[in-house]
Amino acid sequence: MSKLYVGNLSSDVSQELLHRELGDRAIDVQNIVVNKRGFAFIDLPDQVALDKAIEKLSGLKINGKEISVEHSVPRTSRTRKIQIRNIPSTIHWEDLDSLLSKFGRVDSCEQVATESETASVNVVYHSRQEALAAVRELNGHNLKDQQLRCSFLPDNADTDKTVRTRPSPFGFGARGSPDTPLKMLVPASVVGAIIGKGGSTVRQITQLKDSRARVDVHRREGPGSDKVATIYGAPEACGAAAIRILEIVRKEEKDNELPLKVLAHNALIGRLIGRDGRNLKHVQDKTGTRIAISSMHELSPYNMDRTISIHGEVKGIAEAEQQITEKLRQFETDMAAMSQQSLYPGLNSQQMQMFPGLQSPTAPPAYNVSYQGNSSSNNTQETVTLLIPSGAVGAIIGSRGTHIRNISRIAGASIRIHPPDENEEKTRAEPTPETIEAENADADRDAKARVTIVGVPESQWKAQFCIFDKLKQEGWFGNEEGRLTTQITIPGKLVGRIIGKGGVNVRELQRITSSEVTIPRQGELNTSEEIPVSITGTFFSNQSAQRKIRDLVGREIARMR
Predict the structure, then answer these.
(1) Predicted pLDDT of residue 540
(2) Structural class in CATH, domain 377-560
(3) Which one of 15, 236, 298, 421 is at 20 to 30 Å from 558 when CA atoms are compared?
(4) What CATH number has the domain spanning 173-337?
(5) Rounded distance between C-alpha atoms, residue 486 and residue 339, angstroms
(6) Are the C-beta atoms of residues 82 and 150 closer than 8 Å to each other?
(7) Which residues belong to CATH 3.30.70.330 in the chain?
(8) What is residue 340's predicted lDDT score, i.e. its pLDDT?
């Protein structure tokens, strides 16, 4: 069975309409699946039927829109095979070979039998990048008054895999080998233009024929002249979406010299540049672009990303972006084990499997900079206070304390639960009869119990995860992802350094971890005491913020010695 992809369908196209259109053209169809986003998949008996269907449907208009038809290729495919259709029959094959060789080395070129006056060929390039460049340039290319149609062909290696990866439940590609998102900077002034009225423009970007990526523009991400746009999808999909966004930025800013700005972690930059800058120079020479990387002096404790600015023509920028992001993805694959271990200190790979989601790509990325400090030791006892709804105390304790004892045993931590502060009750004025009912309702909704957890980092992760998970099972978070508040303490003398000038460190910490962090002002505390820091967020954002704060405290203590 062979599968056909049909795109650019209007929203009112139904399965019955497609059946009728295909039946009128004597195309034998076994199954049709229509997606409301404007595309469909059609199952055909074999490859011969598929080629004939593409030939007959090319240029067809349905409900006033010309549809696009091509072989269905998995988004994760790395195929080097392409098909070029609608080639004029009068062209000399030497001219065709010359045209194909412009994009790289051609391993093979075979003519496909057709019933039309035009010709079709199947081409195999030496590399994926060469095939991608050919598809981008040749699809729609005018050759002797004929508009070429060019698309990828499925690779046998895609179907020969004995184990098929399942989609990640978090929507980041295949489980176990997720597509690394592409992060780029865009001027804050053009965020509205990128999103479009009612999100129309960003939807068009995600539905591009050569993109099909998901784009998130973080327009609320703190003050600044640039905002981050994160693009999820296959590598070529991310690249196509990034180039389309760059075109919008240049048009809005009326400046065709603006570069594409891609973000990459500082730990990857050295390998990208290469010895004596050879790797970067090779990319620049091959693509005709100029590439600049931001200085290390612009890094902050909570943001280790550096900006890669690619200057040049759009075509060259697209090629350079593909080569750079391919290298970055390869480097990240090599560092995967290290980065997971850095993000979840004290947990080895087998222990991490005990907790569903800990290996999820939704967890904030963390390539830690190693240092010698007390907080980095996996054997250091840490104390965390977790605030939970008072009504959930019974569920956490369990019948005769069985559940809380199990958490303590599994995590290897000491856990104590304290009811809502009774001292507050003693200091309040005597309530009047009219306010008793309202206060009782408020107390039921707002009262918090304090869960104190003492243990090494590994124990903290396990205990806090078990408590979060139990609250979710009991329905305290509803249909939303749970958010709780934790409290850790830091030395009062380090508060100023943790907050940063004008609060820059805290704002950056909140942006990176997607949590809310509250630290008392330095003038309101005794610097000789341990100062509480409150962190509110989901499990992953909360844990990431705790770790990063402790790491920064460890660095500052080591620096003061």
Answers:
(1) 84
(2) alpha beta
(3) 298
(4) 3.30.310.210
(5) 24
(6) yes
(7) 2-159
(8) 45
- Helix H segments across 306-359? 314-334, 336-343, 349-352
Nearest CA to 62 out of 108, 100, 6, 117 is that of 6
How would you classify the pairing of strands 448-455 and 305-311?
unpaired
Looking at the chain, how many residues does it have? Answer: 561
Distance (Å, rounded) from C-alpha 20 to C-alpha 38? 18
Dist. CA 43–CA 50, nearest whole Å:
9
135 neighbors 103 (Cβ within 8 angstroms): no
CB atoms within 10 A of CB 59: 12
Instruction: State the average pLDDT over residues 268-288.
Output: 85
In this structure, CATH architecture of domain 2-159 = 2-Layer Sandwich (3.30)
Q: What are the start and end residues of each CATH 3.30.310.210 domain in the chain?
A: 173-337, 377-560
Please give the order of strands across the beta sheet that includes 414-418. Answer: 414-418, 448-455, 382-389, 484-491, 530-537, 516-518
pLDDT bracket for residue 479 (50, 70, 90): low
At residue 208 the predicted structure's pLDDT band, cuts being 50, 70 and 90, is low
pLDDT digits (tens, 9 = 90+) for 323-382: 898 888 766 655 544 444 444 444 444 444 444 344 443 333 333 333 333 444 467 889
pLDDT in tens, 386-442: 999 988 888 889 888 888 888 888 888 999 998 775 434 443 445 554 444 444 444
Relative orientation angle of helices 314-334 and 266-273, to the nearest 10 degrees: 110
Does residue 135 contact residue 92 with C-beta atoms inside 8 Å? no
Top pLDDT among 508 and 385 is at 385
